[in-house]
Amino acid sequence: MSDMQKNQNEASTFLASEIQQCPIGQAAFSVLPVPYEKTVSYSGGTGLGPGAIIEASDQLETWDGKSNPSSLGIHTRPILDCNRPAEQVIEAIALDVKTILEAGSMPVVLGGEHTVTYGVIKGYLDAGYTDFGVVQIDAHADLREAYEGDPLSHASVMKRIIDENIPLFQLGIRAFCEEEIAIRAKYGVQYLDADDLVPDNIQSFELPEDFPTQVFFTLDIDGMDPSVFPSTGTPVPGGLNWYQTLNLFKSVATQRKIIGFDVMEFAPIEGFHAYDFAAAQLVYKLMGLIQRTQSS
């Protein structure tokens, strides 16, 4: 067993070196590690992402540069057992997310491949959330009806979400097929692709007036440029940089109420711990942006 696999199995709690585990009912944020990896289509390793992020979080400062998100309380759920059929994993994710929401906490989900986000959204629906939208940062549209015959593929996750009548806004996309272009048009998916965002260094944007007031934000690591995160299974050049990613998230958070977020498709590279730390810091920075922009 490699050191990375050991770390995945032994992952403890987010920021364990700095803070005590907070009871779920008192925590603003509940971290849910979901090491699901079944349908990756290029390079693997996303199943090791959640454990690597949690381990690297031990090296974070509680002061994120502008505030201390940990002061609001952080709870970490046990690593989800993903050694079962995809449909069962989706239902297990949904149940855990529903548990977090019913405790009054905010889900912060760490993947795993992007299929995980479908289970997360099902958890919101099961908890009674009906009027919310999804904002996605990604290199890929993930709007195929199925990929390699699998409707629960990571390449189909956003199609599963719009099938649930959830409005979707996409940011940073730069790899998609003609089927996905047609699906965007058919379902009214709105977007700002990378070829608009990156060359002009766009740091903020306006969501459509009719976009829901509550937003779940899903961030695929490959939405960022490989120069920032080569540690992903399907890297695509021309992506977002570090500060642009944070500022686009902030732009959404100042316009709408963030009800949760996930970070997907981080595939750690053994021996290159800088990327593990960067992923952990990204998660914590997003918590900080929520702390500073959202009303109580």
Please explain how this structure is put together:
The chain is α/β, with parallel strands linked by helices and 296 residues long. It has a single domain (3-293), classed as Arginase, Chain A (3-Layer(aba) Sandwich). It is 34% helix and 14% strand. It contains nine helices and eight strands. It has helices at 3-10, 49-56, 86-102, 116-126, 157-163, 178-187, 194-197, 242-255, 273-293, and strands at residues 29-34, 74-76, 106-111, 133-137, 168-171, 190-192, 214-220, 257-264. The protein has an eight-stranded parallel β-sheet with strand order 2-1-3-8-7-4-5-6, sandwiched between helices. Strand 7, helix 8 and strand 8 form a beta-alpha-beta unit. Helix 1 (3-10) packs across helix 2 (49-56), helix 2 crosses helix 9 (273-293) and helix 3 packs across helix 4 (116-126).
In short:
With about 300 residues, the protein is of the alpha/beta class. About 35% of the residues lie in helices and about 15% in strands.
Tags for this entry?
alpha/beta; globular; 34% helix; disordered N terminus; Arginase, Chain A; 8-stranded parallel beta sheet; 296 residues; single chain; 14% strand
How does CATH name the architecture? 3-Layer(aba) Sandwich
How far apart lie the N and C ends? 45 Å
Strand proportion: 5-15%
Low-confidence stretches: 1-9
Helix proportion of residues, in percent? 25-40%
Rounded mean pLDDT is 93
Radius of gyration: 17 Å
CATH names the topology as: Arginase, Chain A
CATH superfamily: Ureohydrolase domain
From the spread of the alpha carbons, the general shape counts as globular
**Tally of extended strands?**
8
Order of helices and strands: HEHEHEHEHEHEHEHEH
Task: Provide a count of the helices.
Answer: 9
Largest sheet: 8 strands, parallel
CATH class: Alpha Beta
What is the number of independent domains? 1
Spatial strand arrangement across the major sheet:
2-1-3-8-7-4-5-6
